[in-house]
Amino acid sequence: MSWQRKLEKVLERYEELKRLLSDGEISAASPEFVKLSKEYADLTAIAEKIEENQKSVRNLAEAEAMLADTSLDTEMRAMAEEEMYALKELIPQQDHAIRVMLLPKDEADDRNAIIEFRAGAGGDEAALFAANLFRMYQRYAERQGWKFEILNYTDTGIGGLRDASAQINGKSVFAKLKFESGVHRVQRVPDTEANGRIHTSTATVAVLPEAEEVDIEILEKDLRIDVFRSGGPGGQSVNTTDSAVRITHIPSGLVVQQQDEKSQHKNKAKALRVLRARLYDQKLAAIDAARSADRRGQVGTGDRSERIRTFNYPQGRITDHRINLTLYKLDRVLEGELDELIEALIAEDQAAKLSNVDE
């Protein structure tokens, strides 16, 4: 199918959806109406961009026709030339924007996300770095206008973080955070280092798309649920009742523990939310593995064992190893200014997808 024909089919479908939604034949309360409304909303911006592009192409043809007219006076010719050059620069930009908009979206892009943190190699310094990362993403969420709900936070008693998780709700959360999964490395001089030597530590971040019950069915018979007393550093509400919950999903071997709430019921609900997200993540990973050639670009696989980024404190530098991007604005990034990094990763992913489409 030619590119122009593909654009025509998008506009035809857009007009068809407009008619279906406005003629009253489909009940506004029906699931089909909701489904078609979402498709229409998704296509609206694309259709508008295509129509804008088509108008630019028509205007370019008119400008070139004017320039072919030998009777055109000098002033009009200059105006036509100016418009022609401007349109020749604009049209490829519009074409590229349309191609990006028409790229197939990942199934989970529109979902909220659960983000998990774990201290890695490096002892107390790794735990302190994990806490830095937690605050960094919390601030980024605030900048985006997202809701950041702490699900679990186990601290070390000295400001570090052993493990933590949070749910982030908002627009395009998973689409923006999905490349953050992996091993983050820090190079800095610990406060306790008397000789000023740089230590290297790591922390792991995992970003999971939120899953609904319709995505993943969890059977009660597949669960082993243990309750115990919250305790030790980190339980946000250490108490004397058996409110902490540990859920083991027997078929997968996944274990989720939750103790931050005083209510056993609330802890169980949070643990099930995290378990469902992890199972959904496994399901998506299996799908991705089946089409890995289409998914692996320079941004990497998102595997949690993959070292993705280095935070170098002495140089004020942050480097993303997947796209060879280095920024000397470490302090600002740690304050949640992640847009430049995240947009670069998204652009790289789009470029890889576009190259596959064009091949």
Provide an overview of this structure.
This protein is α+β, with helices and mostly antiparallel strands. Helices cover 47% and strands 20% of the residues. It is built from 9 helices and 11 strands. The strands form 2 sheets. Strands 2-3-1-5-4-9-10-11 form an 8-stranded mixed sheet. A hairpin with a 4-residue loop joins β9 and β10. α1 packs across α2 and α2 (31-67) packs antiparallel against α3. Mean pLDDT is 86; it is low at 233-238 and 293-298.
Largest sheet report: 8 strands, mixed
Low-pLDDT runs of 5+ residues are 233-238, 293-298
Class by alpha and beta content? alpha+beta
Strand portion, in percent? 15-25%
What general form does the structure show? flat
Task: Count up the helices.
Answer: 9
H/E element string?
Answer: HHHEHEEHEEEEEHHEEEHH
> Mean of the pLDDT scores?
86
Q: Count every beta strand, where a strand is a DSSP E run of 2 or more residues.
A: 11
- Strand arrangement in the largest pleated sheet: 2-3-1-5-4-9-10-11
Distance between the termini: 14 Å
- As a percent range, the share of helical residues equals 40-55%
Radius of gyration: 26 Å
Helices, strands, pairings?
Elements: H1 3-22, H2 31-67, H3 74-101, E1 113-119, H4 123-144, E2 147-155, E3 161-169, H5 173-177, E4 182-188, E5 199-209, E6 223-228, E7 244-249, E8 254-258, H6 264-290, H7 292-295, E9 307-312, E10 317-320, E11 325-327, H8 330-334, H9 339-358
Parallel strand pairs: 4-9
Antiparallel strand pairs: 1-3, 1-5, 2-3, 4-5, 6-7, 7-8, 9-10, 10-11
